[in-house]
Amino acid sequence: MSSSKMKKSPLPVQNICGTQKNACGKEALVKILRWHFGHSEFRGKQLEAIEAVLSGNDCFCLMPTGGGKSMCYQIPALAKKGIVLVVCPLIALMENQVMALKKKGIAAEFLSSTQPLHVREKIYKDLDSGKPSLKLLYVTPELIATAGFSSKLSKMYSRGLLQLIAIDEAHCISTWGHDFRPSYRKLSTLRDSLPSVPILALTATAAPKVQRDVIESLCLRNPIVLKSSFNRPNIYYEVRYKDLLDDAFADLCGVIKSFGNVCGIVYCLERSACDALAAHLSSNGVSCAAYHAGLNNKLRSSVLDDWISSKIQVVVATVAFGMGIDRKDVRVVCHFNIPKSMESFYQESGRAGRDQLPSQSILYYGIDDRRRMEFILSNARNNKSESNLPDASSKKSLDNFRQMIEYCEGHGCRRRKILESFGEQAPASLCPKACDACKQPGLVAKYIEELTACTSQQRKLLAQVFMNRPNNDDGQQFSEFWNRNNDDSCGSEDISDSDEDSEVLMSLSSSNFSSKSRLSQKLDILEQAEEKYYKNKGSEKQSSKTDKNTISDSLRESSKHRLFTALKDAQQRLGSLKFDFEAAVSSLENECFKKFGKTGKSFYISQVASTVRWLSTAGLIHITDRLQPKTPCSENPKPKDNSPSSKTPWSDSSTKATKDLYESASSNPPPNAQEFDVGITKMVLPPIPSFSEFMRSSKARSSGTAHQSSPSKKHSLDRISNTADKKFRLQ
């Protein structure tokens, strides 16, 4: 039998390490590395970390993404007797690592609620035995916090079976980190309950403050601190500016196609954006799928498996596609929205090029994206302030985000900005034209200048939103119009393009109006701005602009393509579906468009995604009942209605009570039935006045009542006028 087909087994432990804590030499450890993992030598700080924990020392190890952190606890598990307990934040990560170890002939298991009961019982039985066969046991921090598992750990410790505790993704324990998880905080009890077991804390992303917090929170005793360089020399960094592109979707599609048939990841901030972008890429010949928390577990697993097995080329995902993703040949990672911190960006972009081959990180930066993220982080800080909670972490979040803004808008090497954010000094020779700012500094400077001009122009036009009325008697300032805290973004389509409007607003900010006249002056300015807007509305410039929220024909066609693919998948899953697929797809898409066509693109895309998910899980009866054409069965059949929604208002049984109530009301009409007709005929309401019309009517009412009322009665008369207005609107 050839050696390639032989199942590898762990080398005899007594031949590798002696009785002394530090008896494992480099030669013996390299032998394990070659035998089980096929590598000829250790990388970076791997060997130092392994020797530290085998000597019984606590260790904090900071390695870049793809640096081989898992070797730091897998090698000790094979070099020394006892079990290595590995704490992981994600079940998917545990499953992947255990599966890979078993293929190498290494005894490893994981415990989670997803496993069948008999599998968990088998693992516990092995742990309770005097000589367990397991070398590595993967668990979640939530399991460690339970009383039952803590008791089992204590028994294993008393028998001397625990060799090492490895805490992967250790930055999750820090409230200063970008991915804080409260369950990790409970790991601080491990030092007290298992005092003589060394602890190895591993992470790929941790700023200096996070590093200190991790060491203190885990109560590491005189730890050996090992830090590898954060530099990923094989990754080329680039920023593309959405505001300077005609179509960001089309640009991204072109970029991905330019790489050829390679593996890639595209990160989006929102689920709806994932669905829309995946639909666009698919309709343009890119093999891709969306991945986010809105999909059911089965569909997410299917997408992940298809991507790992190269059945699809690109995954368009939210940050739900995060830790635990270990594919080494990812050639390009794109961020379609700006991440919230440099740590998040570094970790996500670092999923490219883990095989050390040339790869690329591309970030699409937009002013609207920046404002939205600033709003989210600022709003979180305000909420903490209102609830009397400490807002230090919120301030840190804003500071972290400003690093990302500087990365996108600032001049100079992008690689250096990444390294300096983690406290690493970067020499000038570190980036030999391996980012766009170093390769084409003049072009990038031009883009930044154009972006700055674009930002300045939008800031001027947005100034009207933040105008405030003068202080009241209590010194409190009130907003003139709506509260922007309820908005998450402001699109450019909401703003007039008139240069005159911006000049008016600039003059407003520099004018020194009296406190009594300032409000009326501002209202006059808004009237002028509105009149200019409507005057220019019919111009060629305004009419040629496309509304970003409009559902285009191409989007509808791509949605039909998604629905058709989902229907075909359902046919493969359920068997023959006996109806016209094209008619069914048109019907489903029409339903989505009729429901949400007027509310906007995001709602429409979400509804299409929901329909696709329904097709992937619904049974044969439900799909057939919904999509198969109904045949009329009444005695006097009416002409068949082929429209997707052919039901009458009373066809649903759930509305029978409403129908009876309506018929009862119709048979006993009220005395004023002619004035208030609530039947089939449409109620006619007065038109909503424009801002200018509203102001003119208000001024007319004010001048008409001024000579009849004294100042002491003004408030009560205003109330009467408002009540009369309400009655008029009801009529």
TrEMBL record:
Domain Helicase ATP-binding: from-to ranges: 50-224
Question: Tell me, which GO biological process terms does this entry list?
Answer: double-strand break repair via homologous recombination
Which residue intervals define the domain Helicase C-terminal in the entry? 255-395
| Low complexity bias (residue ranges) | 643-656
Q: Which reaction does it catalyse?
A: ATP + H2O = ADP + phosphate + H(+); Couples ATP hydrolysis with the unwinding of duplex DNA by translocating in the 3'-5' direction
Region Disordered, as annotated, extends over 534-555, 628-680, 695-731
InterPro entries (alphabetical): DEAD/DEAH_box_helicase_dom, DNA_helicase_ATP-dep_RecQ, Helicase_ATP-bd, Helicase_C-like, P-loop_NTPase, RecQ_Zn-bd
Query: Its principal location?
Result: nucleus
Q: Give the matching SUPFAM superfamilies.
A: P-loop containing nucleoside triphosphate hydrolases
What cellular component terms from Gene Ontology apply here? chromosome; cytoplasm; nucleus
Localization, per the record, is: Nucleus
**Which family is annotated?**
Belongs to the helicase family. RecQ subfamily.
Protein name in UniProt: ATP-dependent DNA helicase
